[in-house]
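User: My instructor asked us to take a sequence, write out its structure as tokens, and then describe one feature of it. I'm not sure where to start. Here is the sequence I was given:
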Amino acid sequence: MGGSDCPVEPVKPLLGIQAAVSRKSFPEEQISVDKALRIYTIDAAFASFEENAKGSIEVGKLADLVVLSHDPRRVPPDEIKDIGVERTFVGGRMVHGSSGTM
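Assistant: Let's start with the prediction itself. The structure tokens for your sequence are:
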């Protein structure tokens, strides 16, 4: 499961994803962006016994999600941490961002 040592380090999932994808010290441990995204979503929900409520976008789940400014799979690995969060939804309700059309 992905994570941080919060409160010692900031909770920044995109930074954690970038670190997993671009391991400089141990390149043999690098993983794909898709695997890193899974660790922070589906796998994290499974680890907390909440896979029936969250972790993926499906009918009947909580609809906790973010809309990113760029696709993490399509930017250079060292730029993943710089991707902006344009909107945040919790329980299907937008709690951050503008309500304009996408």
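For the description part of your assignment, you could build on this observation: The longest helix spans residues 13-21. Try explaining in your own words what that tells you about the chain.
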